[in-house]
Amino acid sequence: MNLRSIFGIVATLFILACDNELSINAEWQDITVVYGILDPTQDTNFIRIERGYLGSEPARNSYDKPDSLYYDENEITVTLYWYEINNGNRGNLVDSSELRPDYNIRNLNSDGPFTTEAYRIYPIISPDIPVSSQYEYELIIDKNDGGPQVTASTRVLEGFDLRRPARLGGIYEYQGLLSWDNESKNKNIYLYQPRFYFYYKEYNLDTKESEMKEIMYRFQNVERKGGITDYEVKFSDNNAFYAALAGRIETDSSVLRFFDHMRFEIWGADENLTTYMNLKAPSNSINQNRPEFTNIVNGTGIFASRIKLVLDDVLLQDAGSPSYEDGLYLRQVLCEKRFARTQKGVGDTCICDDIPNAGINELKCPYDEI
Description:
The chain is 11% helix and 39% strand. By secondary structure, it is mainly beta.
C-alpha cells in the first residue's frame, strides 16, 4: 500500500470521527480566587476575593452581572487570624477579625468593560487590625453552602535601612548610587524593585504658566543574595544617568525646566510573591506553558507580603566642579531639554548654551526670554 492510499484512509477516519459540536467549556466549578498583599508601611491593606467564571455565553453578556465574578455577602464568611511567632514557628492565637466587603473604597476604571458595579474588596485597616512582622496571618474563607474551606497563610516582611543617598547637613543628596542594608532582619525579602521619580517645574514661555512634572525610572530587579555586603544599584557613569533623564523628557523649545527634587522607592517582596511574579513575567522562550503557582488552599491566587522604603525630597549633589547637579545644565545630552537655574545672589536665570560636540557646555547668563 502506497503513502497516498494510507493518507486517504486516515483522512476518511479523521473526518468520520470529528464532532462539530465540541464543547470547550468544562463543567462549572466554584473556584475561589484570592489576591492579598500585606504591607506594614500602609495604613490600609486590601484582600480581593472573587470566583473563577467560565460561562457558555460570550463574555460581554456578563458585564452587568457582578455575581458572575463576585460572591454575594451571604455566600462566604471571610476571617483573618493573626498568631504570635515563637522561635520561628506559629505560636498562640492573638486575635481574629471578620472582614467585610467595601464597595466604595476603590473606584471603577471607567475605561473597563466589566461589571457596572464597584469593586468588592476587603479592607484591613490599622491599627484595628495590626499588620506587623511580629505575627503570622491566616486567611480563612468559609462557603456558607458547605463548599470546601479556602485558606492561606503569610508572614509580614520587616523593614530595611537606606545607606545611600546619605544625609549630609540635614539634606539627602544623590550622586549616582542607591544602596540599602543586607542585615538579618530582611533575609525574608527575596526580590527588590528599586526606582526613582524625578520632579521638575516646567515654565511655558508663551502662556507664562508653570506645571510640576515627574518622570519615573525603574532599575533592574535585585534578587536576594547571601553574605553581608549591602545591596546597591547605580548607573554605569554620570552620562548614563543624564541620558536616562533625557530619554524620558520631551524636547520643547517653548519651555524652561527647573529641577525640584527626587523621590526614591525600594519595594521588597517575600518568597511567595517573588515566585508568583517570576512565573507571571513575560517569557522569551518558545514554550509559553509555565507551571501555575498559588499558596491558596482550595483556591488560586496569592496571599503574600511586600514592603516599601521611601526617601523623598532628595537633591542632586552640588559639590565639585562640575557637580552632579551641574550636569543638568551643562551635559550635551540634556542641553536641548532646557533645564535652567537661578544664579545665587544675582537672580539671573541661566540656561545651557548649546555648543556642538562640546560634551560639557557653558551656561548662558542671563537668559532674557522669560
